[in-house]
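Our platform keeps sequence and structure together, in a single record for each protein. Such a record has a labelled line for the sequence and another for the backbone structure tokens. This encoding replaces a full spatial description with a residue-level series of whole-number codes. Below, we set out a record of this kind in full and without editing:
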Amino acid sequence: MLNIVIFGAPGSGKGTQSERIVEKFGINHISTGDVLRAEIKNGTELGKTAKGYIDNGQLIPDELMIDILASVFDSFEDSKGVIFDGFPRTIAQAEALKKMLKDRGQDVSIMIDLDVPEDELMVRLIKRGKDSGRADDNEETIKKRLVVYNTQTSPLKDWYKEDGKYQHINGLGSVDGIFTDIVKAVESL
């Protein structure tokens, strides 16, 4: 199976590129953001808990996210693989994901790092907030999310390098050009 972790700061294009990867390689997509937004919209207990963390620009606790991911992962029948979009975000989560996959005879095939400068991320996220109405895409919350990303999430690059799964992708340029680079990286496996 082809199990991909797509990685990058908020606004780096993970969702956009994930859709293309799913279509190209015929794999399933798990977006932790989409899963959590659906739970919040539906007013579930998980959604209420998650909303408290998200509204403060914080990450969801690891145990909670792994339980959600395992449930979604297990729901896919005859899957060719999965792209994990928005997870893991910490080394502890990466270790938990590795264990969850190993328990199912699987592993991460590649970690794709969409690298975009912070000033460009701010421009993209503020525009996305205006276009989509996403409440968490405002300047104050974006700054908090980028601090969390830089302190807690960015160290994952080294973790995946040590695991031999890391692939850097320049996240600036056309959507098509970036996707071409991703396809080359995946097809080189």
User: Anything to note?
Assistant: The chain has a mean pLDDT of 90.
